[in-house]
Fold:
Amino acid sequence: MFATAKIGRTLSKQAYHAEVVDLRTQLLEAQIAIRERNIPVYVIIAGIEAAGKGGVVNALDEWLDARGVSVYAFWDETDEERYRPRAWRFWRAMPKRGEISVFFSGWYLWPIEQRFTGKWNDAKLDQCLRTIRELERMLINDDAVIVKCWYHMAERDQRRRLKALARSDRSRWKMLPRKSKFSEEYRRFEEVADRVVRSTDIGRAPWHIIEATDHRYRDMTTGRILLREMQEALAQVPHEERRLDDAPSGGNGNILPNAPEARISLLDRVDLTQTISRKEFRTRLRALQSELNDLAWRAYNEKISTVLVFEGVDAAGKGGSIRRVTQAIDARLREVVQIAAPSDEEQAHHYLWRFWRHIPRGGRMTIFDRSWYGRVLVERVEGFTSHASWARAYLEINDFEEQLTQAGVIVQKFWLQISKEEQLARFQARENTPYKRYKITDDDWRNREKWDDYREAVNEMLARTSASHAPWNLIAGNDKRFARIQVLETVTSALRERLKGIK
Structure:
């Protein structure tokens, strides 16, 4: 793919100055329009060493309104990044809607390094590239613009550039030892880069190969590409009015036969009659909490992190179950994240952004009281998002959870179920108990009126997102004591299994 970047393209000084003023004007106009339309823009600046990527970014910073542009260079991992999934560092840098983020190499440098150094084989590289494609497709489906520019030149031109950089005190710092190997084995690096670029050259986020020998041609071409991509995005109809082909059609509840026996769901299989005596509850609670405390500290020492997700019908007992888990674990080792309606800042990002921020570092536990599943539950049922958006979210959520587990995170998801009659009794008890009255809201009563709609949404969610690496655990919640023991046993078992064989 790099042949077109070795043919000697240049731009004279005169021609450059004849075009640059008009280009800057149009870029600023497009940037303002992007801001007004709340479209996030990702600009990935990648390429071979000494291609002048820093010069490109400096030019863009001069041409654009810097107040709406953020620049990120993903160099060596910090301790915060090292003990989290790789994607965490990128999600933290995601631009708000209407803003532009410029990523030096973005999520591409690491897989290139891993394959170039022989730490990965082709299969491992291809697996990583598949994840990248899914990430970019997800961002694009959320109305993002992704501009990917790869800067290249012939080997002789790169050598000449590297010698010039080495002679200058102002640029010698750029010759990082780790990256110098890339230039020493030009052809090998080019082979790896070619595989990466070809595999991620997707239709709505294509790679633009730019010859970098002449800096005026390089910068002008980059500016024109960015302008075109923003203008094309502005010419499209709004996201919610587009039909997106990669979204599944949704549930099948409306096409099933009407007979009750033909409409049995996963939730119908939950035995809500299960109970446990108060005495047995206390005995098992002490034993399980004691073991969980020990396992949590062992997981901390082994840098094994855990994510627990709690979902369920209103008044199902999520809070009580969470408290029995947190009682067993040192407060320094866990965090409870309560998810409510998104803030303005959260709405300005992709819906997964606010969850990625809370992914724990190695050895810690994060407990989500409600979660990313709101996308396919409350947002679906209440009509807060389009059909295409919530239907596509199943794939996005599955990919998100797979990234967590591939990074070694334990993921356990709990759905707490109670009967409609039990829910009514708990609602009424909350209204009649002063210190519990805050727990019942008008929204709870409105949600209850849509019991059947939520039931259908939950069943489809369970079917589409339960995996061996991130399973759903259906908890019978009519008896609160029984539910709490089931949750504790599941969490304890997951940690015990992961730590088995580790001394």
In short: Residues 240-245 have pLDDT under 50 and may be disordered.
